[in-house]
Amino acid sequence: MIIARRKLLQRGFSLGALTLLTGCDLSDNDAVQSVLARFSKWNDRVQAALFRGQQLAPTFPESMAVKDFRYNAWYSRDKAPRLDPADYRLLLSGKIADKRPWTVAELHALPQATQITRHVCVEGWSMIGKWTGTPFRTFLERIGADTTARYVGFECADGYYEGIDMPTALHPQTLMAFKLADEILPREHGFPFKLRIPTKLGFKNPKFITTIYVTDKQPPGYWTDRGYNWFSGI
Amino acid sequence: MTVKRPGVQTHSLPVRISHWLMALSILIMIGSGWRIYNASPIFPFRFPLWATLGGDVGASLALHGDPGVATAIAWHLAGLWLLLASFLIFLLWGVLSGHFWRDFLPVSPGAFRRDLVAALRLRLEHRLGEYNAVQKVFYWGVLTAVLVMILSGIAIWKPVQTYPLEVLFGGFQGARLVHFLAMTSIVAFLVVHLALVILVPSTLVAMIVGHFGHGNPAIETISPADGKGEAR
After folding, report:
1. Domain of B151, in residue numbers
2. Which of residues 83-122 of B touch A (CB under 8 A)?
3. By a Cβ cutoff of 8 Å, what residues of chain A touch chain B?
4. How many contacts, defined by CB atoms under 8 Å, are there between A and B?
5. Residue that is last in its domain, among B77, B97, B117
6. CATH of span A57-226
7. Domain boundaries, chain A
8. Are residues B91 and B113 part of one domain?
9. Which residue has the higher pLDDT, A15 or B176?
């Protein structure tokens, strides 16, 4: 009894000392992580409620668009996948009527629009770019995607994976970007295309997309699996 | 509700609860905010890792391939609800109970100047239960700073959905700068606030148990005349 109490006291002290000395052990504690994850889920719901499908992200004059857009990934620029336009096929799966794969030439033949919008990184930096491509909504309609489904997921050639909510997928500025600064999308920026979503943080803009799927189950995300918030709208 | 009595410091339960919740949430927000700042600094410096909240960098890298920025953001976006709730309780109670009008007002520029000079000469007398003009201005200042913090924070979190707010702060990077400056002023307030608590520890007791000085209402009613002279 006394020994147990002493042990409890000791443990209490060491725990208290740890949390006082450093936030580290506090943050890495499983219970703390699970509370933070629950708050993150709550924030997903708040953000989905805040999102307005017709609220456009600000657009900027061409003079503010950056020519040499910042390269950003967890691997170096030269490790970026090199996709051969001759072999590339965009695969479709899930709640989509026409699952025929798409070639680069077919994608480029889609109607295109241009936007000068701002990329906001979760780290805090931001950069304005000029993007040209097909409104994702147009593409989803073209392939007969079930737009009453809840999510659209993506798999990428570099092992990345992401997913977004359907309202964001249907947002007028969500774009399959084939060009950056009037040039065919450079390899390191995601050739053949990057999903450009000016209403989401940068990491929710997947590059090198090889598969698109429509689903009712929330798709996982590479950085979301590493603790970042899933919705990550801005 | 509470009658001002010289030499007696009283804090109502809602004030104490919201004060400590705000204190906790502000520590969470500063610690995690510093870690997030470090990911993309505005100025040519980073905050020391030990002063930040977001977990062990090595452990986090091994587990997630992320240096703890994800955890810092998770803290920040969870802490914001605690801060928001406690700040609103504090404001509502302050206005509705009359706490703000009774204790933080009036404050004239003349009184502020006089008390500031006295304070800088270390000649300012601290009367428990009564705020001098410098204190009053400080409390209004920190409440304003927290409000600016919340608004600039929303502008950073939702620069598309609340775009006019961002414009108000001079753009996205402007909002980050304002957020940083408001943080700086809150940290400066905390330094002074804590220094004064160390100088007059009885204020800490009052903020925990609710009163200090001849604050026991039972004693007070028996001999009300004694309260004044002794506590000064």
Report:
1. 104-200
2. none
3. 22-28, 33, 35-37, 39-40, 42-43, 50-52, 55, 57-58, 74, 118, 120-126, 198-199, 223, 225-229, 233-234
4. 100
5. B97
6. 3.90.420.10
7. 2-45, 57-226
8. no
9. B176
- The DSSP bridge partners found for residue A116 are A130
B214, part of any domain: no
- Predicted confidence at residue B10, as pLDDT, reads 82
User: What ipTM goes with this model?
Assistant: 0.83
CA of B11: how far to CAs of A102, B79, B105, in Å? 69, 25, 17
| B133 and B191 assigned to the same domain | yes
CA B55 to each of CA A40, A211, B82, B153: distance values in angstroms, whole numbers, following the listed order: 17, 35, 20, 22
- What is the separation, in whole angstroms, between the first and last Cα of chain A? 55
Query: How close does chain A come to B111, measured CA to CA in Å?
Result: 40
Q: Is residue B220, in this structure, part of any structural domain at all?
A: no
B55 in any annotated domain: yes
Q: Measure in Å the smallest separation between the Cα of B120 and chain A Cα atoms.
A: 33
Domains held by chain B: number: 2
Closest residue in A to B48 (Cα–Cα): A22
Q: What is the pLDDT of residues B205-220, one digit of tens each?
A: 888 888 887 644 443 3
Residue in chain A closest to B64 (alpha carbons) equals A226
Full-model pTM: 0.84
Locate the chain A residue with the closest alpha carbon to B69: A123
**Residue A93 to residues A96, A98, A181, B6, B18: CA-CA distances in angstroms?**
6, 9, 31, 75, 51
Q: What is the pLDDT of residues B184-203, one digit of tens each?
A: 999 999 998 898 888 888 88
pLDDT at A6 over 60: no
CB nearest to A125's CB, from B40, B65, B81: B40
With an 8 Å Cβ cutoff, are A55 and B160 in contact?
A: yes
Q: Please list, residue by residue across B122-140, b when 16 or more beta carbons sit within 10 angstroms of its beta carbon and e when fewer do.
A: eebeeebbebbbbbbbbbe
